[in-house]
Amino acid sequence: MIKYEIRKLKINEIPLLEDFLYEAISQRGEENILSKKIINEPKLKIYIENFGKSDDYCLFDIEGKVVGAVWCRIFSGEIKGFGYIDEQTPEFAISLYKDYRNMGIGTSLMKNMLKLLKEQGYKKTSLAVQKDNYAVEMYEKVGFKVEKELDEEYLMICKL
User: For residue 126, which of 90, 153, 94 has the smallest C-alpha distance?
Assistant: First the structure.
């Protein structure tokens, strides 16, 4: 059994969000793997750029090292997140290294973040996920519901 602790992000760990943003990108198959440089595209970079503002929240999971992260941001600039609802709704991002997936860690991270957001007074949160991503089931299990079906993605909302 893996021992883990969920805790808040430390300032010196912010650079780790680059790794987790890349891990969060849904890549189909082992061929044609996207370069890590893709996280520098504006539509992805907004998830981590200048992280640490008052409406940025992040929890890490550790087992002697950081193995996963869940973080939320509110987008109000020109570029919006894939799961953008409005300027009052934080958008979720979650990622675990491959060796730590399907162990219940992601579910635990998400439940803890939902609790934190509720404690902070938010009424709902959102995310976007590719329709064929296995995580859709986990998102539904913790309370997210499909709000809108797009070509390749679901826009999901969880009322807090």
Answer: 90
The two structure tokens encoding residue 134: 């296995």
Residue with the two structure tokens 């990108």: 25
Strand partners, 59: 8, 70
Number of folded domains that form the chain? 1
5-to-33, 119, 150 alpha-carbon distances in Å: 31, 20, 36
pLDDT at 1 over 60: no
The domain of 141 spans: 5-159
What mean pLDDT do residues 11-38 have?
A: 83
Domain containing residue 69: CATH number? 3.40.630.30
Asked whether the beta carbons of 20 and 60 are under 8 A apart, the reply is no
Query: Can you give the pTM of this predicted structure?
Result: 0.89
| CA-angle at 27, arms to 60 and 86, nearest 5° | 60
